[in-house]
UniProtKB/TrEMBL annotation:
Signal peptide: 1-23
SUPFAM superfamilies in UniProt: Concanavalin A-like lectins/glucanases
Pfam families, A to Z: Laminin_G_3
PROSITE patterns the UniProt entry points to: PROKAR_LIPOPROTEIN
UniProt domain LamG-like jellyroll fold: residue ranges: 202-363
Protein known as: LamG domain-containing protein
UniProt superkingdom: Bacteria
Keywords per UniProt: Disulfide bond, Signal
């Protein structure tokens, strides 16, 4: 009995060893590694979709087109992703990375789409395409007017005396040579736009194309109640100059090194509480910081003047809006509020004037220049 138990023990031991050897041999004989399945469906679908958008996209300089060169950049990303898709040895990690990379490229490409700049904040746009009408739906249409000049019969040191000019703004070719697409201003001629509170915002951007005719210390581009609201002009040194009246007082600044020549030039100024900027041909040339106050509404509704300091009916006019000033510490009516101190009007040509009710960014100003610099 004892011997049969020992025999059974050894038989079990031998059986266990055989199974172990068979298992060991099986592992040694099967040396192949299963090939992992790589899912390229998402990458393939993305490439197909992006190719459709790439084919349909058009490069240019106008809203609805993409900046020149943006398609080539996107095509490079498409080709790289296509290479990964066609690579039979590509790993799932490289496929996933290709999807992420192409999606990033699409975002960059979408950002290169040229759009109309801040349309919701565009208060008025005068394209001067045969008339002085506002191109927006806001109805800020202008009327051509003769304006005041200094009476040449009155010489210094006598105080200037106003005299009505004899010309209206006249249509001329624009910077692209197209007939009747810009206005020439001279001899006090200006465009008058009826007052609306929207034209007197708390922050502002003024954009215009100008071609000055000589130097003039009071080359007024746009003016609303002179220095009592805001005025944008070229000074005697031909530098863009902005005056705004804010809740904390008046601010006068110019572009310092920025000078406007006698050829067509894009000039822009912006003001928001704390900062005033000047741009020439899409590039910021001066930034003033540390300023304070939001822009104030003029106390008496005054029409906007394009190319002139004040509308005809307001020079030497009696005040009607409770305008006051301080004399010897006392607040008194400002009877000189609309006094004629001397003529201020633009000499030269202007086109494509915009007013926004916020300060545009550097990129937005550059976009306007890009859009308007070519046909």
């Amino acid at each position: 009995m004892k011997n049969s138990k020992v025999l059974l023990f050894f038989l079990a031991l031998l059986l266990f060893g055989a199974v172990s050897v068979m298992s060991s041999c099986s592992k040694k004989d099967d040396t192949s590694t299963p090939t992992p399945t790589v899912d390229k469906a998402a990458l393939t679908a993305l490439i197909d979709s992006v190719n459709l958008g790439y084919t349909a996209a058009v490069e240019g300089t106008k809203p609805g087109t993409y900046t020149v060169g943006s398609k080539a950049t996107l095509k490079t990303s498409i080709d790289l992703s296509t290479g990964v898709k066609n690579d039979g040895g590509a790993s799932q990690t490289s496929v996933t990375a290709a999807v992420a990379s192409l999606r990033r490229a699409v975002v960059v490409f979408k950002n290169s789409l040229i759009q109309e700049v801040s349309a919701a904040n565009l208060v008025a746009q005068w394209k001067f395409s045969g008339n002085a009408n506002d191109a927006t739906a806001n109805g800020n249409n202008g009327t051509l007017k003769m304006g005041y000049i200094n009476d040449p019969a009155v010489v210094a040191p006598a105080a200037p005396v106003k005299k009505m000019g004899t010309t209206l703004p006249t249509m001329v070719p624009d910077r692209f040579g197209r007939a009747n697409q810009a206005y020439d201003f001279n001899d006090g001629a200006y465009i008058e736009v009826p007052y609306k509170l929207a034209l007197n915002p708390q922050a502002i951007t003024i954009s215009a194309w100008v071609k000055r005719n000589g130097s003039n210390s009071d080359n007024y581009i746009v003016s609303l109640d002179r220095w009592k609201a805001y005025k944008f002009q070229l000074q005697s040194a031909d530098k863009p100059f902005l005056t705004v009246t804010t809740t904390t007082g008046g601010i006068d600044k110019d572009a310092e090194s920025g000078v406007v020549g006698t050829s067509w030039t894009h000039v822009v100024t912006t003001y928001a509480a704390g900062t005033m900027k000047f741009y020439i041909n899409g590039v910021m040339v001066k930034e003033w910081t540390g300023l304070s106050g939001t822009m104030k509404a003029t106390p008496e509704p005054t029409p906007l003047a394009i190319g002139q300091q004040l509308p005809n009916g307001f020079y030497d006019k009696a005040i009607a809006g409770g305008q006051t000033t301080t004399v010897n510490g006392a607040t008194v009516p400002d009877v000189d509020y609309y006094k004629f101190y001397g003529a201020g009007f633009f000499k030269g040509q202007m086109d494509d004037i915009r007013i926004y009710n916020r300060a545009l960014t550097d990129a937005e100003v550059n976009s306007i220049f890009t859009i308007e610099n070519t046909l």
